[in-house]
Amino acid sequence: MNQERLxxxxxxxxxxxxxxxxxxxxxxxxxxxxxxxxxxGKLMKIPxxxxxxxxxxxxxxxxxxxxxxxxxAEKHNTEILFYTDKKYPARLKKIxxxxxxxxxxxxxxxxxxxxxxxxxxxxxxxYGKENVERIIEELAPHQALIVSGLAYGIDIHAHKQALKxxxxxxxxxxxxxxxVYPAVHKETTKKMVEHGGLLTENVFGTKPDAHNFPAxxxxxxxxxxxxxxVEAAEKGGALITADIANSYNKDVFAVPGNLGVTYSExxxxxxxxxxxxxxxxxxxxxxxxxWSLESVSESKPKNSSAAIxxxxxxxxxxxxxxxxxxxxxxxxxxxxxxxxLSPGMLASLLLGLEFxxxxxxxxxxxxRLKLK
Length: 372
What we know:
The protein has about 375 residues and is an alpha/beta fold. It has three domains: about 70 residues, 5' to 3' exonuclease, C-terminal subdomain (DNA polymerase, domain 1, Orthogonal Bundle); about 180 residues, Rossmann fold (3-Layer(aba) Sandwich), CATH 3.40.50.450; about 70 residues, Arc Repressor Mutant, subunit A, CATH 1.10.10.10. About 45% of the residues lie in helices and about 15% in strands. It has a nine-stranded mixed β-sheet, with helices on both faces. α12 links the parallel β7 and β8. α8 packs parallel to α9 and α11 packs across α12. About 0% of the residues have low confidence.
């Protein structure tokens, strides 16, 4: 058993060690394994670590819990992904309050090229369901990954329609991987695992308590490029997810509804207060996101026979080119995360590299290398 991974899971299981403190501990100590080898006195010098937390780490009781958690993951055919893993969703990694560890069951690419979140009321009307069906049908040519929260109403209808349209779909859970909530959706989740997946930050056995769902909403918002709110009352989980997505600088869309209708009030308010783009058809999303169908089939860079003359580029340009050489095409958000450059600096460098005929901009905020 990999000791570093075991130590990471053990830290994650300690009461009082949240995502931020876990990352803080690893940063100060050098590795998760080293945290458990650090004396209590030194642990307590780390900001945020008190006597109770230090005692819990030193006792190493959490190691036994981690061993059990790994066995449960194996039993349920579940991967445990750390924020340091390559397979961990790059979009999620960029948000400040990203979970340090996630549980994943399925076969969808968590770094899918185009990802759309669809959320809404649990009391979905015929109007809402029809719009979900139309949205997903229009997204099918883009081969988009559909993300939602498995709840009654709009969420589960989005998952079912994605499966029907042969689009991969991810359900973000507010419980442990072994507890499907609502239980009536269990058959749908089985199909999702075969063509998409399930994802949660909660340990096995976690019940679907109310406080888990706002936390789940941030994961939905963090995973998607664009979030579409289909139906929502003036207050509710869908609007919380929209607010979170806006705080992450994600593009939010809302389907307008009739005036005076309860489950149209939330969407209409989002549009009225400029917190969401009006969604009338996929053309709205394509325009705002700069998506086109050409980018779906294009994968090979043009002029790929030309070699890179590294001496022709400065330090930061080389940093961008090295990432593009490793992965091309790549979305600008992931490129920014990989290069650790500011948005303004990266935009300026990409423009300069375009002028030098070294990179090419693609629809959907993607870039690809034109050189080898």
